[in-house]
Protein 1
Amino acid sequence: MATYPPIHIIGAGLAGAEAAWQLVQRHIPVNLYEMRPEQNTPAHQTGYCAELVCSNSLRSDDPQRNAVGLLHQEMRLLDSLIMAAADRHRLPAGGALAVDREGFSAWITEQLLQQPLIRFERRELSQPMADGITLIASGPLTSPALGQWLEGLLGAQLSFYDALAPIISYDSIDFSQCWKQSRYDKGSDDYINCPLDKEQYENFVAALCQGEQTPLRSFEKINYFEGCLPIEVMASRGLETLRFGPMKPVGLRNPHQGGKTPYAVVQLRQDNHLGTLWNMVGFQTKLTWPAQRAIFRTIPGLEQAEFLRLGAIHRNMFIDSPRLLTPHLSLRSDENLFFAGQITGVEGYVESAACGLLAGRFLAEKVESGQITRLPPLTTAHGALLNHITAGANSANFQPMNIN
């Protein structure tokens, strides 16, 4: 049996879990470290690996019309653990790939714990191990201790702010005003639709703009990711912004009004297998919790809404990858230190997992032969994603990005 240098993976999120899986499928032992639940983060709620902390959607699953759908397809061909879990725990969501949040993460955790080549330790590492090769996949909510070590090694850290959307109890929704339908009937009746007329919509936008927001601490500088703006920030950009964004009514017909298309609509997406939890699509927010309850209960059908999770804001961290990383995700100044996942500046669940998949395969090639594959950036989604974070982006203004 071949012998390999120790491989340590810090973080068992989407990227770390996928990287570990790719390595053990090639019979390479892995030491996997996860600090949760002993030390939690502002966004995580469980000790499961690959926990989904924001939406439960992995976005479009169409490989012909959408870049993330193409990334899904490539990952399936590359034996992705994350995609296997997503397909196994899929929920109705039209053309999107949404999953039962808890079932998805619990199954991934079970698969990793069953692998004899994975030594799984639940403890925080404040810096890489001294021996072997380390992959840092600590995610955007990297612990303060490890973050401080990285700052000393790499220089100033970059960051942006991300926010969570509220989750509502199904039993608290008033279906005398709401109905189930996907836009253009794509899929089944996978979304709950809450309609607003012109006056209700304009009052709602005004309330969002005036709502009390969670204050930032004195040392925090706001820098939102454009692909996940808080709903009140979108509302502040103009009265019609939400009607052309998450509240667009196109492709929907209100059966309570003779099939009429509403002026605007709030959509809810199923968040668990039982159908008891529903996520407010596109309603990530930094409003205070009392403001959320007051404003969101003005939405028709949600007057008695029971909020099982309210929106929140958290700081995400990423490194200046184009300046720091090689095309194989290793540090330019240390060939035995690799990075993967959202800490590299890829944005999104799928992109994070894909980055972990690449890191796992690159590590396997490094210890097996020393020859690491170079991916074509123009003919593969994985190659394009890798190119953005290691070569194609402008390092002077590097920002996280979804596959597109």
Protein 2
Amino acid sequence: AQEVHKKMSLRASVTSALFLDNVRVPDANRLPGVKGLKGPLGCLTQARYGITWGPIGAAIACFSETTEYAKNRMLFQRPLAATQAVQLKLADMARRITLAQLLSLQLGRLKDAGTMQPTQVSLAKWNNCRMAIDIARECRDILGGAGITTEHSPIRHALNLESVITYEGTETVHQLVVGREITGINAF
């Protein structure tokens, strides 16, 4: 495994490139009753379900910190939160976070019932990652010049979400999975 250096995202963990050339897996070590990629991809579906929750936490952290900042940051003898633009942005963030929570909650209910479908997981991962990265960027903007400093978390979350939106299937892959479900045509 080649370790990846000079990362700007997921800096708290080691990232490596893993190469498996000419690997043969003995029959005794194969997944029982699984043919092709169905078994490994089934594991990905379960992992992707878990990933639908992570971006919600990042979005909430950004939202909470930015809301407190806006309520305490004084501009022209008024808190930043007293402006219509900031209140509209914060209200929209609360709406998008709540929708993502409800989506993942319903997906969990389907998972518990054994009826969760991979396309539903793709939709939730795509939606929740996009929601969180957009909120992190919007929070960074509300924080103004301070938004690019390590004093505040939105820029860190935005950088980490750039990885989350990519791993376990890129946003484009999940869009194509949903597109295939809608049209019945595999475009990838």
